[in-house]
Specification:
The chain has 590 residues and is α/β, with parallel strands linked by helices. It has 4 domains: 226 residues, Dna Ligase, domain 1, CATH 3.30.1490.20; 98 residues, D-amino Acid Aminotransferase, Chain A, domain 1, CATH 3.30.470; 118 residues, Glucose Oxidase, domain 1 (3-Layer(bba) Sandwich); 85 residues, no CATH class. Helix content is 40%, strand content 19%. The chain has 23 helices and 26 strands. The strands form 6 sheets. It has an 8-stranded mixed sheet with strand order 14-21-20-16-17-18-19-15. A 5-stranded antiparallel sheet has the order 1-2-7-5-6. α4 runs antiparallel to α5, α5 packs parallel to α6 and α22 crosses α23. The protein starts with 12 loop residues before the first strand and ends in a 5-residue tail after the last helix. It is an enzyme of class 2 (transferase).
């Protein structure tokens, strides 16, 4: 193929390496934007270029890679080659790349990534000679074939545990008609197309629908030079949260896997070690990582989720993004950022949504009842909450039986629709930064990970109570106790701030002010058959409303639209936050 570096119009790629020029997240996606931010701060980041979301839209419009993109892929690779003094597909100092999705709105684990691209038998030999380790090079080749076979060729066979490249290739050949091309350029073109296509996968569509994310955003594709956490004993990979995504405390929260690649950690197939393992093995690298994490937390004005790799004792940062967090962590982090002088109270109340407030006020398991219950299994608490349901073993069963408890050896992006339908998720393996944990927190579904081998089989069909706050699974249904909005310091202060910025007054149903109100329209007295879209028609001139229907986000919005000035609610904070969000969405400032 031609190796010209001449750019042709339109331009489909961006090189986010100029510290003075901030790229558009809409154009390059959140992942590439974070690379630009880290690089502009002087942090160690492998070089990369980005195929934009405009190219993704053109891909779907034209039914393939748009004209001109092929030449720009060549130009982008040439930039990486020059910066690293390596050659893509070369037989000396070969360059391998990762091809990673990155939408403008974070959707962790929903789209595809292909690592170690550019590998073939000749490149394997060159990598083995450079590293002085044929086993390492063979493992990189095996991994690449697995990625390419699954993400590009659509192989549905289990490839992860096959012993070598030949076994992976045979399994792919038995399942699909295509083979993995030896030409790295052909690999690259096909991988970019596959990542584009993954933005319209069933799991990605389901995730966007669940969170109300626009369906036309597409994805950018980041092509980045590979660094190898599986190179030697002074190499590894990990994930670090600058603040706990479970309870919001400001302390490092993460995991490290020596001699691993990033996919090993997030897939949940391998249970990694605590971050203290990195501190013991490579204390200087650990210190460098924590210094970078503090800077990213400060610069980002929010808790960060950081992916990193250590290659032969050198730290590389691969991504930093606002961390998906539990409702408890969202409230505590927002409050802490105000105390630290990072956020104003007005900004803090906009960091927590009504759904999170509702979640935080859900009932908790009763301590006495738990003490008397039969403990069936235990693991790491990854996304807190309590749920009771019948255990099912597949995502399809969870979809057929909403409210069941989904138990898996480990979850993958294909399980997301089942996770959305389930009341709780438990896994046999994986840590608190695995796919199940991260997606569980994003969905606010109670999740316990790493419960041990055999849990799926032993619990299938049983009714259990999952206490994902403590990481325990009990037999049968366990009693719960109601949470008190006024007994939680975090909620009390957030409610006070929300009171100040809310466009509507929200009174406690059992408070004196509510009792002194004049006529109040009570939505609970309306015939449910007459509700239509779920919210009753508020009479003209009504100044105050009460009832369960107005404690939902839809009800609060309806009250604001009707010009109501007061809502009486059993739980005040969710209504206040819904009112503020609706107020902001209509271009008004509190």
């Amino acid at each position: 193929m031609s190796t010209t570096t001449t750019r042709v119009a339109p331009r489909w790629t961006v090189v986010p390496d100029d510290p003075a020029v901030e790229p558009s997240k809409e154009l390059v996606g959140g992942k590439a934007w974070s690379l630009w931010r880290m690089r502009s701060l002087g942090l160690p980041v492998p070089p990369a270029f980005v195929v934009t979301t405009e190219a993704c839209r053109a891909y779907f419009a034209e039914g393939g890679l748009p004209a001109g993109l092929e030449g720009e892929l060549v130009a982008g690779i040439r930039l990486l080659e020059r910066e690293l003094d390596r050659t893509f597909g070369g037989t000396e100092r070969p360059l391998l790349v990762s091809v990673r999705s990155g939408a403008a709105v974070s959707m962790p684990g929903m789209m595809d990534t292909i690592l170690d691209l550019g590998m073939n038998p000749d490149v394997e030999a060159a990598l083995a000679a450079e590293a002085g380790d044929a086993t390492f090079a063979a493992e990189v080749h095996r991994r690449f074939c697995g990625f390419y076979g699954r993400q590009v060729l659509g192989c549905t066979e289990e490839l992860e545990d096959l012993p070598d490249t030949d076994a992976v290739r045979r399994a792919i050949a038995d399942d699909v008609t295509e083979e993995i091309p030896a030409d790295p350029w052909e690999q690259l073109r096909a991988a970019v197309g596959a990542v584009f296509a993954s933005s319209r996968s069933r799991r990605a569509v389901a995730y966007r629908k669940h969170w109300g994310i626009r369906d036309d955003l597409g994805t950018a594709v980041t092509v980045q030079a590979m660094v190898f956490g599986n190179l030697d004993d002074s190499s590894g990979t990990g994930v670090l949260f600058t603040r706990s995504p479970v309870d919001g405390t400001r302390e490092p929260y993460g995991e490290y896997l020596p001699r691993g690649q990033g996919e090993d950690v997030v897939s949940g197939r391998i249970t990694p070690r605590p971050l203290t393992d990195l501190a013991e093995r490579l204390p200087a690298v650990h210190d460098e990582l924590l210094t970078a994490a503090r800077r990213l937390d400060d610069e980002g004005r929010d808790a960060q989720d950081i992916e990193f790799t250590v290659q032969h004792g050198s730290l590389y940062l691969l991504q930093s993004r606002p961390a998906k967090r539990t409702a408890r962590a969202a409230v505590r982090i927002a409050r802490a950022l105000v105390r630290e002088g990072t956020l104003t109270p007005a900004e803090a109340v906009r960091r927590v949504n009504a759904e999170q407030a509702v979640s935080l006020l859900r009932p908790e398991i009763d301590g006495d009842a738990a003490a008397a219950a039969t403990l069936l299994a235990a693991g790491a608490a990854a996304s807190p909450g309590v749920a009771t349901g019948v255990v099912v073993g597949t995502a399809e069963e969870a979809q057929r039986h909403p409210g069941s408890v989904l138990a898996r050896h480990t979850t993958s992006p294909e399980d997301v629709q089942g996770m959305i339908a389930a009341s709780a998720v438990i896994t046999e393996v994986g840590g608190t930064t695995s796919h199940a944990a991260v997606v569980g927190r994003a969905l606010d579904v109670p999740c316990v990970v790493g419960c041990g081998a055999g849990v799926v089989a032993s619990l299938a069909g049983r009714t259990v109570t999952v206490d994902a706050t403590s990481g325990r699974i009990y037999d049968g249904e366990i009693a719960v106790t109601a949470a008190d909005e006024c007994a939680d310091d975090d909620l009390v202060e957030l409610t006070a701030w929300a009171d100040e910025f809310s466009p509507v007054r929200v009174l406690a149903a059992d408070g004196e002010a509510a009792c002194r109100l004049g006529p109040v329209f009570d939505g609970d007295t309306v015939d449910p058959e007459a509700l239509g879209d779920g919210v009753p028609t508020i009479p003209p001139g009504a100044t105050a409303v009460r009832g369960a229907v107005f404690q939902s986000a839809d009800g609060a919005r309806a009250a604001l639209d009707a010009g109501v000035g007061t809502i009486v609610a059993t739980r005040r904070l969710p209504v206040l936050l819904a009112a503020i969000a609706h107020h902001d969405a209509h271009g008004r400032t509190a």
